[in-house]
Amino acid sequence: MHDERPPVAIIMGSQSDWETMKNAADTLDALGISYEARIVSAHRTPDRMVAFAKGARDEGFQVVIAGAGGAAHLPGMVASMTSLPVFGVPVQSKTMSGLDSLYSIVQMPAGIPVGTLAIGRAGAVNAALLAARVLALHDEDLFERLEDWTFAQTAAVADYPTDEAP
Ligand code: RP5
């Protein structure tokens, strides 16, 4: 039986993170990967976070992309309660440009892994691409789409710079 449940969960600590995390969603859309995006805050909705993390696998998720800013505990806390792969995206904060977010996510203690990406849009896009690479291990069609996406990106790079806005 074909499983129609979205394989990727995109979670974020706040509505304000969506502007960044939408880049992960857009990338998954481009690759034809379904996802569900939710607001799950480690601090403001801790019970929701626990319920999500403990139930994520039963919900059919295979990869979790978790974005948060500032005291960004969400990716690590979720990773502590699920054995699914968790990719953490540090959202760029206003006060410290996202360095606080990065440090909050990246330095996990041994035993609880979070694959930490770059701050901001690049991290969100690459989290989606990493999720795609994980899913493509067992999905030949997706593997082809992923390769096509990369070839198209390469083909879109001009040989010479221009004064015209792209
Ligand atoms: C974190 O606090 C969120 O991930 C967000 O990046 C940051 C600020 O949240 P808001 O005050 O904008 O809701 O929990």
Structure description:
This protein has 166 residues and is α/β, with parallel strands linked by helices. It is 42% helix and 15% strand. The chain has a single domain (8-155), classed as 3-Layer(aba) Sandwich (Rossmann fold), CATH 3.40.50. It binds 5-O-phosphono-beta-D-ribofuranose (RP5). Residues 13-14, 16-17, 41, 43, 68-70, 91 line the site of 5-O-phosphono-beta-D-ribofuranose (RP5). 5-O-phosphono-beta-D-ribofuranose (RP5) binds at residues 13-14, 16-17, 41, 43, 68-70, 91. Keywords: Isomerase, Purine biosynthesis.
Taking the sheet with the most strands, its summary is: 5 strands, parallel
- Structural class estimated from helices and strands: alpha/beta
pLDDT averaged residue by residue: 96
Strand arrangement in the largest pleated sheet: 2-1-3-4-5
Query: Rg from C-alpha positions?
Result: 16 Å
Tell me what portion of residues adopts beta-strand conformation: 15-25%
Binding site for substrate: 14, 17, 44
Family: Belongs to the AIR carboxylase family. Class I subfamily.
GO molecular function, one term: 5-(carboxyamino)imidazole ribonucleotide mutase activity
Domain PurE: 6-157
